[in-house]
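Sharing a chain and its predicted structure for anyone who wants a worked example. Both blocks are below, sequence first, tokens second.
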Amino acid sequence: MISPSVPVRGSMRRGRVAAGALQMGRTLWSTPSGRVAVVIVGAFLLIAALAPVISMYGPLERVRGPQGGLARLLPPSAAHPFGTTNFGRDVFSQVVWGTRRTLTIAGIAALATALIGLNVGLIAGYLGGKVDAVLMRLADSAYAIPFLPLALVLVGIFGRSDTVLVLAIAALFWRTTARVVRSQVLTLKERSFVKAAVVSGASRRRVLYVHIAPNVAALALLYGMLLVAEAVLAEASLSFLGMAPPNAVSWGTIMFDAFTSQEMRRAWWWPLFPGLAIMLFVFALSLLGRAHESVQRRRLEVMP
């Protein structure tokens, strides 16, 4: 996080946020684990962006063999690197298209979660008192509510949709970001540049979102990136339980189709490759967290 020394005004606010994001990127790239994680995450993002080009078939397209019959439950081969399903669908193409949907839902959910956590942390840390107590008790309550039962209730009320999946994830996962941001705000609000803004007549809203928020935005962005891993696991869990919209294709729905087909023992490749994709992506994001912790530890060691 960038140490503020002067009030942030106008275009300086955007520059401070951009500088913080750039510094965070350099921090993650400065360690071997961070570089590996960035490469893996970048590869997944590239696959999601180029899904129509990379995939050989549509996600729900039924592939037929040379003799015109459906290519049902074919093992991995040159023609079908990840094999096929019981309906003759190419698993490789489904995993590629599923990457786009999974990362889109997880990214939106993580962004919404980070924004909620950022605002709750800003308000709780700056206002303090009863407002702080109420918001932090809400955060404690969010830790106490189990995720899957809440998601089941929301799906039962509103039906199966991507919006419900995002709401279910964002409703609970904002808690950690809020606590971390609050702790930073408690320190920042005692800095001279914030007190100068208050003395000059700046409103609470201006102090929060012009002078304080840009200095914690990079930290909220980092936790938002780490929340993507939780969102991916949450989306996969909900989709595996059949809560995804009909005909939706994601890593979780591929595994759900494999499970409900009762062909998992015979077609081992069907759930294997989407499961490996989930594992690799979440592992890469955990490496990002480890890289950040390693850099922070080194900074503490060199401090006098």
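Comments welcome. Confidence is low (pLDDT under 50) at residues 1-10.
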